[in-house]
Amino acid sequence: LLVSKTILNEYLVAGKEITVKYSIFNVGESAAMEVSLHDDGFQKSSYDIVSGSTKAEWERIAPETNVSHIVVVVPLTAGSYNLSYAQVAYKANAETNDFQHGYTSQVGEIYVAQRRDFDRLFSLHLADWLIFCAMTMTTLAIPYSLYNQSRKKYEQQDLAAAAQKKAKSL
Amino acid sequence: MTVTAASKTTKQQKITKEEELLLQDFSRNVTFKSSIFFYVNALIVSTIPLWLFWKIHQMEPLEFGILWVIMTLVSTWLVSFAYRNSKFVLKHKFAQKREDAVAREVLKSIPDDKKMPKKEKDERILWKKNEVAEFESTSFAIFYNNTLYIFLIILFSFYLLRSFNPNFNYILSVASSSGLLALLSTGSR
Q1: How far apart are CA B46 and CA B83, in angstroms?
Q2: Which residues of chain B have a CB within 8 Å of the CB of A143?
Q3: Which member of A139, A158, A161 has the closest CB to residue B48?
């Protein structure tokens, strides 16, 4: 059996879900029996398990087939974490009683970013922009309307005077 | 002799008042009331972008409070400097534009039966023209500079300096925007 452990997320953020995928490939000629997967890498102090389980079992994995298992976890705090390998145990064929043990690939060190750093990059902040626009409009609309009131008054007077002059000349 | 002395003093007073108006017209200095008005407006417009830095750039007020206060004060001074300069340039333009309309308005307001010397009429027109030009130039200077400042802050903070650390982004955006505003206001047109 070849077993891989991968993280499907592009960005790892504290308080946001991380999807971990375990893929088991049977590259042998016989079916693997009583396959069990066990991952101790997600301590309760650092992670909440939102969906799935860190333990999984399959009665039989046929030759030249693969299976996968997903766990969704949420890191509680930002910082560096070491995601080590998970353990796999299985019987090489139906006749044997001996279990073989193996390990998945390692993800290695991961960096979980602060929520605010992620929000700064990706959140739309629509409400924040709307509030900013409302505040800005006040500082722009008031002086402009004061200027415009005065301008209109005197420009209208100029127009009226010009019209009167034209009427007189006719 | 007393009558002659009195009329000479009145003439001197009239000339002084006219000169005072002309001096006011051509001086860059603003009255204390105008100064306070400019500073208050500049403070408001310098404070508004802090909302963006707090909510979008995620700068915490408690952490960056002192920096915000310092930069806001610097920006307030520079923006009010820009207001003063812009107002000075605009006042002359508006005074020229409104001359005829203001003169008509003042002459209309004088009752026909009241006989007023030409000099007094001219003084009233000059005073009113100054008042209108002062009002329009002040309000337009504030509007124009506020618009330009907000535009520059957004340009610097969200485009030119977006990859910078929020701290440097804030300092450079505010300094550049208010500095550029002050610099542009020193132009004569």
Answers
A1: 13
A2: 41, 139-140, 142-143, 146
A3: A139
pLDDT of residue B114: 66
**Backbone torsions φ then ψ of B66, nearest 5 degrees:** -65, -45
Which tens digit of pLDDT belongs to each residue from B115-170?
778 888 888 888 889 999 999 999 999 999 999 999 999 999 999 998 888 999 99
Q: Which of B48, B57, B136 sits opposite A151 (nearest CB)?
A: B136
Contact B51 A132 (CB under 8 A): yes
Q: Do A154 and B102 touch (CB under 8 A)?
A: yes
How many other C-beta atoms lie within 10 A of the C-beta of residue B146? 25
Pair B185, B85: CB distance under 8 Å: yes
pLDDT at B8 over 80: no
Please choose, from the candidates A142, A127, A120, A132, the residue with its C-alpha nearest in 3D space to the C-alpha of residue B49: A132
Q: What pLDDT does residue B4 have?
A: 46
Q: What is the mean pLDDT of residues A83-104?
A: 86
- The tens digit of pLDDT for each residue in B22-41 reads 655 556 666 788 889 899 99
For position B3, what pLDDT does the model report?
43
Of B100, B135, B140, the CB nearest to A158: B100
Residue A133 at interface with chain B, using a CB cutoff of 8 Å: no
Q: Taking the model in full, what pTM does it have?
A: 0.70
State whether B132 and A150 contact (CB < 8 Å).
Answer: yes
From A79's Cα to the closest Cα of chain B, the distance in A is 18
> CB atoms < 10 A from the CB of B19, how many?
10
> Inter-chain contact B57–A120, Cβ cutoff 8 Å?
yes
C-alpha distance across the termini of chain B, in Å = 52
In this predicted complex, what is the ipTM? 0.79
- Per DSSP, A170 falls in state -
By CA distance, what is A150's nearest residue in B?
B136
